[in-house]
Design a protein that fits this description.
144 residues; alpha+beta; 3-stranded antiparallel sheet; 4 helices; 5 strands; globular
């Protein structure tokens, strides 16, 4: 068993896999699930591992890292990501990627793109190594 805490969305939790479903949100304390279920939720970017169910919950819930996926990803991986966030598992790879993009708010059609930590690091590295381009004065010279 692993202890996790939700960092995004709501998870339908059943103690010992039986009984009534109890919703778990980022505001709830950590809870225990099977190792495989914990890995599935953490990989999907909706939960994080914690030390114990008694661990103090942060009031500032961090935005999860968007998992890496794309049309080159394995179809089963895409299906697991869809399942983990409660989306229907259907369509070809492009359709599954589009559904995940819409869910995470990333992709061409989103107004705001959530960057993973790796993307943020890459962006900082590019900024650091960016060559300053000379500004071009487009104003026409004055004729006297």
């Amino acid at each position: 068993m692993k202890t996790i805490q939700m960092i995004k969305h709501t998870y339908g939790y059943r103690k010992d896999g039986k009984g009534t479903v109890a919703p778990k949100t980022p505001k709830d304390p950590p809870f225990e699930v099977s190792d495989s279920e914990a890995e599935r939720l953490v990989t999907a970017g909706v939960a994080k591992y914690t030390e114990s169910p008694d661990e103090v919950v942060d009031d500032d819930v961090q935005t999860p890292v968007v998992p890496k996926y794309g049309v080159d990803s394995n179809g089963n991986t895409l299906k697991e990501l869809l399942k983990a966030v409660g989306l229907p598992v259907k369509g070809n790879k492009e359709e599954m990627v589009t559904a995940l993009d819409e869910y995470y708010g990333v992709g061409e059609n989103s107004e705001e793109s959530e960057l993973s930590e790796d993307s943020e690091d890459l962006e900082k590295e590019l900024e650091k190594n960016e060559i300053q381009q000379p500004s071009l004065d487009t104003a026409a010279p004055e004729n006297s």
